[in-house]
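In response to the reviewer comment on reproducibility (Comment 2.3), we provide here a single inverse folding case reported in full, input and output, so that an independent group could reproduce the run without further information from us. The structure tokens appear first.
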């Protein structure tokens, strides 16, 4: 939705305890406030949702576009969010479902709101399903971006490792004619998430830490250089996947193997050197 249109919905939602008029009359929405992956500023987005027990499910549909919505990119870096349901406001941890769990939850969403199936048909991008886990008030403290990053960085890495493993598994399970839409979807999801994650670090986190810890300048230079290496491998992988009919499966597997090796070393180094700095500052 256009930004000004979202603003109108948000204003009416808050002034009428979640009740909307006009074309949205009768709709049940929530407001999700995320922290910008690069800016660190709050961003509020109206979203449809589906209840799943005590959890809420939201989908990064973006109207079926080929690009993940900004709020989804934000939660990959800053998973602590604020949820407004009209009658109450609460804090939550936003976790993107992966693999079989994602497919199971998406089926639940489609059963309750069939329109999401049409959105999925309109794009090769796998629409992410995000689970909102309510944080008990006794456990909640105002989110500190550095604290959240320290706590969640390893989880983000694990999610990215899972996505990459799914991509590798898809390669292993298909012969050349079978390397089609599913594989492109895995790659699009993973490549987009990597770009957001590394972009947020390069634009905000690393410059801040470099100012706080000038003695660790070599660490940040190494990590930025590794980001460049990962980006080049991703570009090569996406170029191969763009011409699947011509590309040799062995060439694609070689790029994925190179990517896994590079990221395994990169994540391990980052967890060893960056997490302690974040926790110390927090």
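Designed residues, in position order:
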């Amino acid at each position: 939705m256009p930004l000004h249109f979202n603003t109108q919905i948000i204003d009416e939602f808050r002034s009428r305890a979640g009740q909307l008029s006009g074309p949205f009359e009768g709709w049940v929405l929530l407001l999700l406030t995320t922290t910008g992956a690069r800016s660190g500023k709050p961003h509020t987005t109206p979203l449809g949702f589906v209840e799943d027990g005590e959890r809420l499910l939201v989908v990064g549909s973006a109207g079926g576009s080929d690009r993940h919505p900004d709020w989804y990119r934000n939660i990959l870096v800053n998973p602590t969010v604020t949820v407004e349901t009209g009658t109450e406001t609460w804090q939550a941890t936003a976790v993107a479902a992966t693999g079989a769990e994602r497919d199971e939850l998406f089926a639940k969403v489609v059963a309750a709101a069939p329109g999401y199936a049409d959105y999925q048909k309109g794009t090769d991008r796998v629409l992410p399903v995000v689970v909102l886990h309510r944080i008990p008030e006794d456990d909640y403290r105002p989110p500190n971006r550095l604290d959240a990053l320290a706590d969640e960085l390893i989880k983000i890495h694990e999610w990215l490792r899972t996505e990459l493993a799914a991509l590798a598994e898809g390669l292993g399970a298909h012969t050349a004619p079978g390397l089609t839409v599913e594989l492109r979807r895995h790659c699009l999801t993973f490549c987009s998430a990597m770009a957001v994650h590394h972009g947020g670090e390069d634009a905000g986190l690393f410059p801040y830490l470099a100012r706080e810890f000038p003695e660790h300048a070599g660490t940040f230079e190494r990590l930025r250089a590794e980001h460049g290496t990962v980006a080049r491998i991703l570009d090569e992988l996406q170029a191969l996947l763009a011409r699947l009919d011509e590309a040799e499966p062995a060439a694609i597997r070689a790029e994925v193997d190179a990517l896994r090796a590079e990221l395994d070393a990169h994540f391990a180094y980052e967890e060893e050197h960056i997490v302690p700095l974040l926790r110390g500052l927090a």
